[in-house]
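Limitations
The structure tokens in this dataset are predictions for the assembled complex, not deposited experimental models. Users should treat interface geometry with appropriate caution, especially where small molecules or nucleic acid strands are included. An illustrative entry is reproduced here so readers can see what is and is not provided.
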Amino acid sequence: DAGITQSPRYKITETGRQVTLMCHQTWSHSYMFWYRQDLGHGLRLIYYSAAADITDKGEVPDGYVVSRSKTENFPLTLESATRSQTSVYFCASSESYVGVYNEQFFGPGTRLTVL
Amino acid sequence: QKEVEQNSGPLSVPEGAIASLNCTYSDRGSQSFFWYRQYSGKSPELIMSIYSNGDKEDGRFTAQLNKASQYVSLLIRDSQPSDSATYLCAVNIPPDSSASKIIFGSGTRLSIRP
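Predicted assembly:
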């Protein structure tokens, strides 16, 4: 089915472990984004990517790593998870990032708990 | 000062009435404005986008933009219980040395009472 998917949907891990959250989109959108959503902070941009092999930091990038070897995939890795990274993570994509075609469409989210 | 501000609510509106949601933004160069609806435990869903001053209507939803006042609003006519959700305002921030980015407000929780 067309759209944007995330896996896993739920993840519990321990402090210090490496975790990778997956994001896949079938629209061939150029831009992809990772956000975290926490009570009191709304949606905060972690990283974004303009195309394969092009990534850039957002508002809260520390502790996260991204890659984009293929247009359709944009995995987010927590290299050494901390409790402060407990959050709901949303992946999004858009056709463009400037002009009038920059509506972003969101995946279903991954709820991550770090113990 | 936050770049995109919304009243967190909750905003309680009787069924059938008009719900009015407001958002202010700080960057005068912003060009794109969005309203997302987010049900509890779900992902944000785009419901309206607006790019020029004035009103834009889509069904029961009307987005209003006033760039001079740096103000964007969403009106929901004939409010239904299914409209109960958190509404996120999003605004693009023009690029300085990097690409443009979109900033989200913290959202307004709307409750439609029967």
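Some entries come with short summary sentences. For this one: The mean pLDDT of chain B is 91.
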